Amino acid sequence: EDKVVQSPLSLVVHEGDTVTLNCSYEVTNFRSLLWYKQEKKAPTFLFMLTSSGIEKKSGRLSSILDKKELSSILNITATQTGDSAIYLCAPKGDKIIFGKGTRLHILP
Amino acid sequence: EAQVTQNPRYLITVTGKKLTVTCSQNMNHEYMSWYRQDPGLGLRQIYYSMNVEVTDKGDVPEGYKVSRKEKRNFPLILESPSPNQTSLYFCASSFFSGGSGSPLHFGNGTRLTVT
């Protein structure tokens, strides 16, 4: 059975801190791993990772995939209050399923 | 504009009254899926479809039906809604062909309340 586990489930940090969010997965016929940010609406796409060890960056956010360990991390440096959201990871195998998400709250 | 269109955005109904939530995409995606989102439980998959006339159960299919008669449309049907189906629903679509395909594109969501 496919499964996705994200950790931590919840995280509270101060503005300016760096955070690392984790995602581990077991899926059939893995193709890629997707990261999304969700505020009070539909999830918005952040990254699609297909190759191990190649970091993808977008501003203060970066992510990397480890296919050997069946995991991925999402890093956010110099956090801002606007980064407060739920972060979701979704491995794409024979279907696309989601972890429960990490709820990140940034204190000013 | 490439998009996934879900309707309605908000729906309040009573127990047992059949309803349909529509979903349409204009990106020629093979894969379409329905998710429900509840606090603390994340996005759980209800049904998905890999192509026309091909549908499969997700993790929480009980009480729901879907159909995929055309590639662009994937309606979600609740034959006899119950209060435990009160939730936020998302339709999404993606390319699956050509290796890793594309990211999942989401509709704006439907907030359903069953009283």
How would you describe this structure to a colleague?
The complex is a heterodimer of chains A (108) and B (115). Chain A is mainly β and 108 residues long. Helices cover 0% and strands 56% of the residues of chain A. Chain A contains no helices and ten strands. Chain A has strands at residues 3-7, 10-14, 19-26, 32-38, 44-49, 56-58, 61-66, 71-76, 85-92, 102-107. Chain B has 115 residues and is an all-beta fold. In chain B, 0% of the residues lie in helices and 50% in strands. Chain B contains no helices and eleven strands. Chain B has strands at 4-7, 10-13, 19-25, 31-38, 42-51, 54-57, 65-66, 76-78, 87-94, 105-106, 110-114. In chain B, the strands form two sheets. In chain B, strands 2, 4, 5, 6, 9, 10 and 11 form a seven-stranded mixed beta sheet that branches. Chain B has a four-stranded antiparallel beta sheet with strand order 1-3-8-7, with no helix packed on it. In chain B, strand 4 and strand 5 form a beta hairpin. Chain B is globular. The relative contact order of chain B is 0.32. The mean pLDDT of chain B is 95. The chains are: A mainly beta (108), B mainly beta (115). Chains A and B meet through strand 9 of A and strand 4, strand 5, strand 9 and strand 10 of B.
Task: Give the helix/strand layout.
The complex is a heterodimer of chains A (108) and B (115).
Chain A (H helix, E strand, L loop, with lengths): L2 E5 L2 E5 L4 E8 L5 E7 L5 E6 L6 E3 L2 E6 L4 E6 L8 E8 L9 E6 L1
Parallel strand pairs in A: 2-10
Antiparallel strand pairs in A: 1-3, 3-8, 4-5, 4-9, 6-7, 7-8, 9-10
Chain B lengths: L3 E4 L2 E4 L5 E7 L5 E8 L3 E10 L2 E4 L7 E2 L9 E3 L8 E8 L10 E2 L3 E5 L1
Parallel strand pairs in B: 2-11
Antiparallel strand pairs in B: 1-3, 3-8, 4-5, 4-9, 5-6, 7-8, 9-10, 9-11
